Amino acid sequence: MDTNGGFEPVFCTIVPPHVLDRLARHEDSALATPARRTLERDALERTRRRLTTVIGAVAAAPPAAGAGTPHRTVYDARHQQDLPGTKVRGEGEAAGEDASVNRAYAGLGATFELYLRAYGRDSIDGRGLPLDASVHFGENYDNAFWNGEQMVFGDGDGEVFVDFTSSVDVIGHELTHGVTQYTANLAYFGQSGALNESLSDVFGSLIKQYSLGQTTAEADWLIGAGLLAPRVHGTALRSMKEPGSAYDDEALGKDPQPGTMDGYVHTGQDNGGVHINSGIPNHAFYLVAAELGGHAWERAGQIWYDVLTGGELESQADFADFARLTAAAARTRYREGPELEAVLKAWEQVGLETS
User: Fold this and answer.
1) What is the pLDDT of residues 313-336, one digit of tens each?
2) Which neighbouring-strand residues pair with 153?
3) What is the DSSP string of 56-77?
4) SS3 for 228?
5) Alpha-carbon gap, residue 234 to 295, rounded angstroms
6) Do residues 108 and 175 lie in contact, with contact meaning Cβ atoms separated by under 8 Å?
7) Catalytic residue among 177, 275, 283, 295
8) Which letter does DSSP use for residue 167 in this model?
9) According to a count of CB atoms within 10 Å of the terminal CB, is the N or C end of the chain lower?
10) Is-catalytic flag, 218?
């Protein structure tokens, strides 16, 4: 796909709107006020992203010199909302005292490494795109997002969420929205939007697994583990292994993700439930990886990457389209082997056919 046109970059946040909506209605102002401010800011960023799509984005920076090497820059927003903020660390510079800066820098690097070493992709656009991130965004901002051009991290409110640089899979998740932006460009609504979210969860998890050297059996398959404050009854934002089990909390409510099509949620909220129904393709990927064992970024991840970047995944694709394409990709790369069998079995288990 031509990287100079045709893209509709979306505003993607790691904490779903339905979670913040619930918090915003809480009787405890310590929970409600940060959530309301975050929702207001997210709405503004979403509007800006739509305007950029209509008017045209600012020309992207040229690829970094030296193929196959990252070009990272981390900025400090200093609790303001003007991006990117003050530059505090560039590529190759030593770590400082700010843990958020160091984690962001490391997370950008971990994402770059997975895509390069596992799939031969030079940064998120495949052409060495510089990776920028801003930390300490806003006051008690309860989210992290990719805005089509850079990563942004809030510090959390300390009551429900902690610093959003705390989970490397969150960084990988958001940057993968950039990979999708430069490849399949999946529309951010309904099943195509849920696939967009699921692909970010898949590769966010693989980035964490790759950086830790974990096998499929050793991985926790959680998205956002470490983001929830101690008072919250839960382990993460989402579970790929057991969708619907990540949290069950008085303030957050019960994790609503289904793991099969029997539980598919029809809703007008959250762009048609993109953060909810993503649990179904998430679970399918986990089942493939678990069946194959070893390192999930190798065979299972390769199949998913082939579909994302192969040029046949339409922007309006639904779950059935994606299931068929993963089966075709498995057959093309691995023939009639255990990889294809694992893919067919996984989609059947979540209630989707591949033919």
Assistant:
1) 999 999 999 999 999 999 999 999
2) 144
3) -PPPPPPPPSSTT---EEEEE-
4) strand
5) 27
6) yes
7) 275
8) -
9) C
10) no
For residue 144, which of 227, 251, 243 has the smallest C-alpha distance?
A: 227
Residue with tokens 């974990």: 214
Token duo for residue 82: 């003007």
Phi, psi (rounded to 5 degrees) for 70? -75, 155
Are 75 and 105 spatial neighbours (Cβ–Cβ below 8 Å)?
A: no
Query: How far apart are alpha carbons 63 and 55 in whole angstroms?
Result: 23
Considering only CA atoms, which of 257, 269, 262, 273 is closest in space to residue 190?
273
Asked if pLDDT for residue 55 goes beyond 90, the answer is no
Distance set, CA 82 to CA 17, 42, 88, 159, 189 (Å): 22, 14, 15, 25, 28
pTM: 0.93
Q: Hey, what are 168's tokens?
A: 């490397």
Handedness of CA 202, 205, 211, 216 (dihedral sign): negative
Tell me which long-range contacts 216-219 makes (C-beta under 8 A, separation of at least 24). 216/289, 216/290, 216/292, 216/293, 216/294, 216/295, 216/296, 216/300, 217/290, 217/293, 219/296
Which residue of the set 45, 159, 174, 339 is catalytic?
Answer: 174
pLDDT digits (tens, 9 = 90+) for 137-177: 999 999 999 988 899 999 999 999 999 999 999 999 999 99
Tokens of 164: 């959003």
The tokens describing 31, both together, are 């929970």
* SS3 of residue 120 by DSSP: coil
Which pair of structure tokens corresponds to residue 131? 């990776």
**Which token pair is 196?**
């967009």
Q: 177 an active-site residue?
A: no
